[in-house]
Amino acid sequence: MILQLEHIYKDYVQDKLVVPVLKDVSLDVEEGEYLALMGPSGSGKTTLMIIIGFLDVPTSGSYFLAGQNVAGKNDRALAKIRNSSIGFVFQSFNLLPRQSALENVMLPLLYGGVGARERRRRAEEALEKVGLKERMKFLPTQLSGGQKQRVAIARAIVTRPKLLLADEPTGALDSTSGRQVMELFAQLNEEDGMTIVMITHDRNIAAQAKRVVFIRDGELYFEDPVLYAPASSYEAYDDSDEEDLYEDDPEEDDPNEYDSEDEDTEDYDPEVSEEDFDEEGADAGLPDAPEGSEEAEI
Amino acid sequence: MFENIGLSFQGIWAHKMRSFLTMLGIIIGIAAIIAIVSTINGTNEQIKQNLIGSGNNAVEVSLFQDDWQYEMQYNGIPEGVPVLSEKDREKILGFDEVEAAAFYHRRNSPSVFRGSTSLNGGNLMGTDNNYLKVYGYTVREGRSFSQEDLTGYKKVVLLDDQAAKTLFPSENPLGKTLEIQGEPFVVIGVAVQSSSFQPVINSIEDYYTYMGNETSGNLYIPYTCWPILFQYDEPQNVVVRAISTDDMTQAGKKTADYLNEQVKNSNNIKYKSSDLLEQAKNLQELSSSTNQMLIWIASISLLVGGIGVMNIMLVSVTERTREIGLKKALGAPKSRILGQFLTEAAVLTSLGGLLGVLAGIGLAQLVSRMAEIPIAISFPAAGIAVVFSMLIGIIFGILPSVKAANLNPIDALRHE
Asked: In terms of CB atoms within 10 Å, which end of chain B has fewer, N or C?
């Protein structure tokens, strides 16, 4: 058992009001599993991933990673676990803009205290795995969206983590690039036996995982709750409904703002990009992390 | 650490204009301080050089009653003060700091006539060739005292340049007769202080310091003739030449202490050394204290510069919230983030300090050319300035760095 969540609760406090986001979540993930965590925006799926990824601690409940209880660990210890045991892949890549692909991939090894020569060797190896070895000297601005995400994946696997955590990894990509990323995930899972936990709200993407769990209103379902839910609650889950969410937050349309101003938009399939907007809009409106959406205005 | 320094330079280079403007406060502050310190050092150096020039490291040790120089022409021979002998001179010459020593009698404003021309003011000294040696006098015309002059009580006189000009404005003084205190004396030579001993005069203050005792002229007669003009058993004054300028105070003190051992006087009459080094120190302190004020004012610029750095670092932290969040997600501990931002602030201000030192040296050169003020660039001061600006960076970088290190990785990652 690589991942064991037992009765996890997470509350956020907003304006002295306690908002429960996760309610009694229990989940086991076996080594070598490929799990998709699916849920509509506001369901608490990002919060769950934050807790799995040690970016925050649960309000209550216990969490074991590879049999080791991680409750009550201090900042330094959590940083060390993040560094050695978990690889992150984000929707918006989060590459350092002024560093080359190679330097970006070497970054986690630097924090892990790996020597310079070994860092370089392992980073090149990881870039080779994602098929970008010949572009390792490129800056993120010189790479397409799909290439950027593959560099980010190389960065996530360079420390040979026990767990790969992906948050909407195809959310900012066109369909071709998205497919490439999914193929890479499948390869990493099958050939290297890497455990993958992926968050998505796209059914087609989730279908490529070996197991899908659903989260809705902070509760976990091992079968799709929507299929059994009354028609009215189905609305929030429907893609067509997310049009409204997009209108709520029109500024949030470019997920790649951090990486570069002049995103190579020609890479985007115009038909798909509409969908991209929807997804990002949906994500930004996350009520499960009120501070997050507030901070976006700052 | 090296990665951090590399990153800092990358960051500074990426925002060249902003970095430069941020550094400007530090640059101006450090440049001002370096320029001021260079000027102070230059002035002090010159004062010291003048000392060596003016007195040839000479320290006069003469009799004082309390704080006033004891004047034998008004007060008579002091009780219990012995006349000094050649044995005393040898003793004084035995001190490590003393290179040469001479004894002399002195009268201010003696009565000296050449026909109807009189020497107004001036000094008359009863001494020997040692005195000329200590003060670096060379005989330009004629000769110095011979052994026979001294043992034979010869009424001969040496003039200095000034006295020669006053008394013999239009003729060669050699072999001419002067009337000193009513007695005839024959001029045997004109002595001049060699030019390397001439002080550099840049201001009226310098003039008073180095030329203040320059009067209408000095006359030198053999000390053996002194009782003919004045009285027997007058105790002498002493002048010693120290080995180096720094030894002047010690040489004077040792001589005075030795002489005072022999003095048995109840009226507080004592030998005291009055050296130019001390006077110069007072002068230096005076100029330093005004400049100290300027340094304080310049320090305010450093403070303002430091606040500017803090401000920009805070902006930088906000701008790079996502980067910080990512680094934390990848496993960078707090200390690493703290180190990164502290290093960046320190690199920024050190660079500012370095540019400030260069600008300060340039400014000092400019000032010295334009105002003809001597400067001396102090390399230790430049080093301290750079280290100090680095400290400013670290101190004013603490707040932004702590803010960065304490960012919650999720909030940081969500930051748009």
From this structure: N
